[in-house]
Specification:
Elements: H1 2-65, H2 71-163
Helix pairs in contact: 1-2
Length: about 160
């Protein structure tokens, strides 16, 4: 039984190692996507700051001159900011979806890893208990044999006399 438990433990430990590798890969992939998402958040913040600067500038032109003195420049800057913001928001949406998927993969891998760890821990406890029981039985047998060996020499002599 101990041999079977030992073999099963080695198989379960291999599964645990595989689950750990899978979890590590999922966590690393999630970290990459998280960095992408953080970079896009920063880019959106930068776009927002540029848009605020742009709006302050054209409002200044209106207050100072009463008209937009650089209308074409105003339009080009507005179009560039809008296109940049639109592209970044679209990319952010894609990365956010990948982020949710990678986060789910990490949760799944963590759950599998925990289950495998619990199985290995339980099997180790069972193996340790089996080893203790076997040692206890072997110790009891050895004690019984020692006690029998002390009693048997006298009994063997008595039986030999009775047979003669």
């Amino acid at each position: 039984m101990i041999e079977q438990l030992t073999k099963l433990l080695s198989v379960r430990e291999a599964h645990l190692h595989s689950a750990h590798v899978q979890f590590t890969r999922a966590a690393a992939a999630h970290a990459v996507v998280e960095r992408e998402r953080t970079a896009l958040d920063e880019e959106l913040r930068l776009i927002g700051a540029q848009r605020s600067g742009w709006e302050r500038q054209w409002q200044h032109w209106l207050r100072a001159d009463g008209v937009l003195c650089r209308g074409q420049e105003y339009n080009l800057l507005h179009l560039r900011l809008t296109a940049w913001e639109s592209d970044t928001r679209e990319l952010h949406a894609e990365v956010s979806e990948r982020y949710r998927e990678s986060e789910a993969a990490v949760v799944t891998a963590r759950t599998v890893l925990r289950r495998q760890q619990l199985r290995v821990d339980q099997l180790r406890r069972e193996l340790e208990a089996a080893i203790r029981i076997t040692r206890s039985r072997n110790s009891a047998r050895a004690a019984s044999r020692a006690s029998d060996d002390r009693v048997l020499p006298g009994r063997v002599a008595t039986e030999a006399l009775e047979q003669s």
